[in-house]
Amino acid sequence: MDTQTLKPQESFKPAEYAEHQLLEAILNKNYPPGSRLPGERVLAERLGVTRPTLREALQRLSREGWITIAQGKTTRVNDYFKDGGLALLVSMVRHSRNMDKGLVSHLLEVRLTLLPGVARLAADRHPRRLMSYLKGEEELGDDPDLFAEFDWGLQLLLAELTDNPVFRLILNDFTPMYTILGRLYFKEEKARKRSRRYYRELMDAVWKGGAGTDSVVRSVMEDSIEFFKELSHD
């Protein structure tokens, strides 16, 4: 990244390409928090883009909170984990080619904290709609992609059935990331078996009035965290 001129990819517009490459460099610690980016001319040459294109990319990164642009000074990389927000996290997931295992673990821990309570609210407020969706488990067969699609659909539905739109907004932007993780998870036969049992346990808890729904969800979330921890050691 620092020494080679990179060629814009056809799938990116020039400014998007420059933004993507700079963000990759920041996430890979080529430009760690607190460091300064090279001057505009040098950076544009390294990326193989024009200076106006580079300025557009830098403005995008500045708006998202990755960098601070100061008139007459070199651009500084922000301490994004300390000062950033949800939009920055979504950008991190969207742009990173290689899903950082530490980030995956952190996100799964957040889900563990959030989703059990969401599930209980959904079961209390719209049990029939939740039951109707869970019955679709019978048609999954043994296809990992179908499991991943069904499972993420369930999480989005749980958020929707709380009647609190903020929960759904939080989850929506993580669909691309979950597509990657879900397919990886459901490639394992034991993961598919565990999830099938989870759907049936969840259906049973909803049928009984919702009590225990949060415990059922928490248990499977904990199992998924352990799965990805094991994966990171392989």
Strand order of the largest sheet: 1-2
Number of strands: 2
> Overall mean pLDDT score?
87
CATH topology of the largest domain, anyone? Four Helix Bundle (Hemerythrin (Met), subunit A)
Weakly predicted, low-confidence segments: 1-10
In N-to-C order, the SSE pattern is: HHHEEHHHHHHHHH
How far is the N terminus from the C terminus? 28 Å
* Tally of domains: 2
Please describe what this structure looks like.
This protein is mainly alpha-helical and 234 residues long. It folds into 2 domains: 14-85, Winged helix-like DNA-binding domain superfamily/Winged helix DNA-binding domain (Arc Repressor Mutant, subunit A, Orthogonal Bundle); 101-232, GntR ligand-binding domain-like (Four Helix Bundle (Hemerythrin (Met), subunit A)). The protein has 12 helices and 2 strands, in the order αααββααααααααα. The longest helix has 25 residues, at 101-125. 29% of the residues are buried. The model is unreliable at 1-10 (pLDDT under 50).
Question: Which helices and strands, and how do they pair?
Answer:
Blueprint: H1 14-27, H2 40-47, H3 51-64, E1 67-68, E2 76-77, H4 80-83, H5 86-95, H6 101-125, H7 127-134, H8 144-160, H9 165-172, H10 175-186, H11 189-207, H12 213-233
Antiparallel strand pairs: 1-2
Helix pairs in contact: 1-3, 2-3, 6-8, 6-12, 7-11, 8-9, 8-10, 11-12
Quick structural overview:
The protein is built from 12 helices and 2 strands; from the N terminus they run αααββααααααααα. It is mainly α. The longest helix has 25 residues, at 101-125.
